[in-house]
Amino acid sequence: MDVVLQDSHILFLGVLILLVSAIVMHYSNRIFNLSFLSIPAVWYFAYTVTIFIPSFFIFYERSGYYRYSFIFALASALVTVPIGILLASVVLKFKAQEIRQYHAMPIQDRPKDFMRIMNYALAFVIGLILFFSWCAEQPGPIPLLYLLNPGEQTLDLTLMRDYSLKLLDSPIRYLYHTTRDFLFPLLMLVAFGNYYYSRSKHSSSRLWFFFLIASSIFGVFFAGANISKSPVFSIVVLMALALFLLKGAKLAWWQILLSLFLSLSFPTVILMSTLGSYSWATFQEAFGKLIARVFISPSFVVYFGFELVPERVAFQGGRFMGSLAPLFGKEPSDLREYAIWYLMGQDHGTGSASGAFVSELFGDFGFPGVILGGILVGIVMQWIQVSILRSPKTVFAIATYTMFIYFFSTLTYLQIAGALILSGAPILWLLYKTKLLG
């Protein structure tokens, strides 16, 4: 009886924390008003819907004391990150009204600037070189082309996908990742923004239209070439966000529905292909798997991180921070490898299991890391947003804003280093400050 009562109290506290954090977030960033679309708002809803709410279903399905550490850590992020955002707002004297004012102000830009066009063309050429280099280094057929081949398919698509990029034996594998997940999406956003702005000013837009088509062809193909489901989904979401911001935080209902359809189409088709059928029953199964991947798997993977640490794996003191591990005097380690080993046993093939930033912080430093790390994430998130909002509104500024919305939203399934460093975020910030692309 005591356990049931305790569990019911946890649900009540969870709802209370959610309500209080929502009030704080709305006060600081007006998260319930679409005309105030902000980086913290998208992070908050992504975290709440894909991590926090599903965590209670997992909590009541599981037994043992791990689940209490799990639910406390996830709930704490809804307190610590808003605290960090609020602290940054106070120090920077930021008012939520600045978000609306920024979205409402007109874009001030020069799409025909010669140096900007040349820098863009150079970046595009670099992307092409890396794309064709990736094609040349493939150990076998490109997975997407193999999948589209009407002939008999005898190769393992999962292995083809993993060895085409994630496990590709290449010294510049990270550059291929960056080109696919960062460079081409950024080039698409910049070309689209300049094309949209030129059209709105009734100015010649043929060059930027060419760049938009070219970057989209190579960007979308590269994103889907190894049949990973998330890169194409991310590109569609980024383009929809950019259009929303370019139109002054407005989007027609049909544009929202079209964006949802396009973003979910490629992952669904790939899943149906791997299931070997395109029937209605297969569509239902594939769509169910996709929904589970978005709304259940992230929180599910995080839970097993709490079963692992510290019961089976000791606190790592910074090793799980990836590329940030040297700052703590540690050699990098990967919680994903421990998680997939724990979930699937020794014979886990090429699989991996990514968890939200909370599991990484707990695995390294326990609850002090979760609390302090959450506050720091909130401070950085708000500082970046305020820096953009208080600078001139240009096409590249909108592209930067869009990309950082995406970067911080990936904290729901990536570690801090993966979401905010290896993603290309520092490169983007450098480009934004130097104005090389606008």
Describe the SSE topology.
Layout: H1 2-29, H2 39-61, H3 66-92, H4 97-104, H5 114-136, H6 143-148, H7 157-166, H8 173-200, H9 206-225, H10 230-246, H11 253-275, H12 280-295, H13 297-308, H14 335-344, H15 357-389, H16 395-409, H17 416-420, H18 425-434
Helix pairs in contact: 1-2, 1-3, 2-3, 2-13, 2-16, 3-13, 3-15, 5-8, 5-9, 8-9, 8-10, 8-16, 10-11, 10-16, 11-12, 13-14, 13-15, 15-16, 16-18
Can you tell me about this structure?
This protein has 438 residues and is mainly α. Among the domains are: 2-104; 113-273, no CATH class. 72% of the residues lie in helices and 0% in strands. The chain contains 18 helices and no strands. The protein has helices at 2-29, 39-61, 66-92, 97-104, 114-136, 143-148, 157-166, 173-200, 206-225, 230-246, 253-275, 280-295, 297-308, 335-344, 357-389, 395-409, 416-420, 425-434. α13 (297-308) crosses α14 (335-344). The longest helix has 33 residues, at 357-389. The radius of gyration is 22 Å and the shape is globular. The N and C termini lie far apart (63 Å).
